[in-house]
């Protein structure tokens, strides 16, 4: 009987499917990697350290998002009389702005929040539908703490160095615009066509050498499109 039992166990093991090392590796590669929020810790901490020595004003206007915001050095000059606070960190995605809202938005109790992000999301492989969901979650988090704060989404603009992603930018913008216009205290600032020339191609003269980030002329054009959304400055400012 013992011999028969041993034979049965051996046959059972032979018939059991085995996962090869290659299959295991493939399975691991198929799983989405967790988002690395820690990569921004140094920049977020720098904002907090700056706030301790030079506290930004309350009830101002926060600009956050990726490198387009981070590199906007003339933000205060472009909107004189406004209490603007730049909290952009380059390479970030919409989920990063949501994750760090407790540290780079809420402490200032802003009356307005401008968000410019989404291009890096597309570049990282997200779909327009996923970007829409991330935007909706950003709005939900901000309005949970600041229910009457005006949120303005600054749309994604095509860039020469990422031109193959242009159609995805357009679709993400469309989805977010439709959602934004249906939400209370949410607006949409269109900046897609502003970078295109008569030939429908992104104008190289608006970008620095990397053909991804705006130069001073590019920021002038961007400021012109954002300006209509800014509140009227208080008298005496």
Describe the structure.
Residues about 1-30 have low confidence and may be disordered. α9 (about 130-145) runs parallel beside α10. The termini are far apart. The protein has one domain: SGNH hydrolase (Rossmann fold, 3-Layer(aba) Sandwich). Helices cover about 45% and strands about 10% of the residues. It has helices at about 1-15, 20-30, 40-55, 65-70, 75-80, 95-100, 100-105, 120-125, 130-145, 165-180, 215-225, and strands at about 60-65, 85-90, 110-115, 150-155, 185-190. It is an alpha/beta fold and about 240 residues long. Strands 2-1-3-4-5 form a 5-stranded parallel sheet.
Q: How many strands, which pairing sense, and closed or not: the largest β-sheet? A: 5 strands, parallel
CATH architecture: 3-Layer(aba) Sandwich
What is the level 1 CATH name?
Alpha Beta
Instruction: Give the overall form.
Output: globular
